[in-house]
Amino acid sequence: MTTALKVFDRWKEFLGDRVEQAEKSGMSEETMSKLAFEIGEFLANKVDPKNNEERVLKDLWDAGDEQEKKVMARLMIKLAKNS
């Protein structure tokens, strides 16, 4: 496995751990989705992608309208749960 994929896998694992913690603390799916959207906005506007995977996520984010970005945020939560 290439280094970039290992880093992306670690990122998904980290995100999965945070989602699990949020669920255990009683955070609703809707609240997690709103936070994921806000984090996505911040990352897209303030952080330069460090690898191809981050670039793809940023490009997808930038291409979407607000509703599509909200869907993407929910999908990232699902991805994290399944990791």
From TrEMBL:
Annotated Pfam families: DUF3243
Entry protein name: DUF3243 domain-containing protein
InterPro entries associated with the record: DUF3243, Uncharacterised_YmfJ, YmfJ/YflH_sf
